[in-house]
What does this fold into?
Amino acid sequence: MKITFALAALVASIATTQAAKGTVRTAGDPLRVHSAPSTTSSVVGSLKNGAVVEIDCTATGTKVTGKYGTSTVWDHVPGGYVSDTYVYTGKDGAVAPPCKGAPKPPKPPVGGGCQAAGIKNP
It folds into this structure.
């Protein structure tokens, strides 16, 4: 019994340290690939709806609402980062280990909203 439990724990830990596959699911538009886990980072490419991608690691970044809910999880795929909310993996949350040395998302602008736009609050 103890051996079975130990083996199951070992298999579970190995599964989270390996890359995973996912399928891009959008409303039909290409999914933008970013240089960092942020919607404000530069766009470095795109993936077609239905493309199968290899996710080698995941990072925390900008909160995005997409086809599969709202999340701050970003998947690192060849070439950059995509929001996990547009990648079907069969699991909620991260499916690959954390990225080591992932670029930090840019900080949001200070003082946004009505004041920054020169609009007085009602």
User: Anything to note?
Assistant: The CA atoms of residues 24 and 49 lie 5 Å apart. Residues 2-15 form the longest helix (14 residues). Strands lie at 20-24, 31-34, 43-47, 52-55, 57-66, 69-77, 80-83, 87-88. The longest strand covers residues 57-66.
